[in-house]
Amino acid sequence: SRRTDVVTGLRRQLMAAEEEDSLSYPPLNVTTGNYTCILFYAGNFSLKANHSVLIDLTNATFLTQNVDISASECSDSNTTLSLKYTKPVNGISSLEIRFLMTNKFYEVSARKWSTLHSVEIVQDGEKFAKFNVSGISAPAEYSFHCQLVGTSNLYPARLVPSNDEAKNWDVFISKLQIQGFNIINNQFSYASDCTGFFTPGIWMGLVTSIILLWILTYGIHMIMQLTTNSRFDDPKGPALSVPQTE
């Protein structure tokens, strides 16, 4: 009973810690009139310029909210989340990051899907970097969530450089959740996660199972090919002679 109490208390502490972590700060919201049209959240939102200058935008975006979102645009088919920062680090006077999303109807699935098509970075109003986005889409009624998003090849949702300027930037976003359409009660809808059903672990298990099944099948086949002698030597009779042709 003591162990049960300890485990129960530990579970409650872990659940409370998870709730506090998930509610550490509210998401960034863009409003049009009296309703929210864009919700954006990230556990860590960082950039690296020229592969050396680290720019952490997490606090400026969600805690102090030292970010200008007035250039953001919302419509039923296209949404743009514009984040403008003034002097985020020494050497950069202004920085704008744009998330471009679309909402289209696809006949194959017979429903609308919201897709984050591209991410743009504008430094000092001159240097323009564009990234094509792969793997960020969800039904229009849902939000999109992904644990890791960025320029690394190891992330499940990638930002692929589209021009030469984009190659000078590294982007890292953890615990990303974004929604640009059909927001109800100023809250995220059910999240469509970027992690597919067939994870690397599942693929390894399937391949291993197929190999073991093949070995088992081959072993059973070899056992079925074994034959027993059809003739036996009789000690009271003449010696048994088996021709070489048999």
Automatic annotation (TrEMBL):
<dbReference type="GO" id="GO:0030659">
    <property type="term" value="C:cytoplasmic vesicle membrane"/>
</dbReference>
<dbReference type="Pfam" id="PF20520">
    <property type="entry name" value="Ac45-VOA1_TM"/>
</dbReference>
<dbReference type="InterPro" id="IPR046756">
    <property type="entry name" value="VAS1/VOA1_TM"/>
</dbReference>
<feature type="domain" description="V-type proton ATPase subunit S1 luminal">
    <location>
        <begin position="36"/>
        <end position="181"/>
    </location>
</feature>
<keyword id="KW-0812">Transmembrane</keyword>
<dbReference type="InterPro" id="IPR008388">
    <property type="entry name" value="Ac45_acc_su"/>
</dbReference>
<dbReference type="GO" id="GO:0001671">
    <property type="term" value="F:ATPase activator activity"/>
</dbReference>
<feature type="domain" description="V-type proton ATPase subunit S1/VOA1 transmembrane">
    <location>
        <begin position="196"/>
        <end position="234"/>
    </location>
</feature>
<comment type="similarity">
    <text>Belongs to the vacuolar ATPase subunit S1 family.</text>
</comment>
<dbReference type="GO" id="GO:0033176">
    <property type="term" value="C:proton-transporting V-type ATPase complex"/>
</dbReference>
<protein>
    <submittedName>
        <fullName>VAS1 ATPase</fullName>
    </submittedName>
</protein>
<keyword id="KW-0472">Membrane</keyword>
<dbReference type="GO" id="GO:0098588">
    <property type="term" value="C:bounding membrane of organelle"/>
</dbReference>
<dbReference type="InterPro" id="IPR046755">
    <property type="entry name" value="VAS1_LD"/>
</dbReference>
<feature type="transmembrane region" description="Helical">
    <location>
        <begin position="202"/>
        <end position="221"/>
    </location>
</feature>
<dbReference type="GO" id="GO:0012505">
    <property type="term" value="C:endomembrane system"/>
</dbReference>
<dbReference type="Pfam" id="PF05827">
    <property type="entry name" value="VAS1_LD"/>
</dbReference>
<dbReference type="GO" id="GO:0030641">
    <property type="term" value="P:regulation of cellular pH"/>
</dbReference>
<keyword id="KW-1133">Transmembrane helix</keyword>
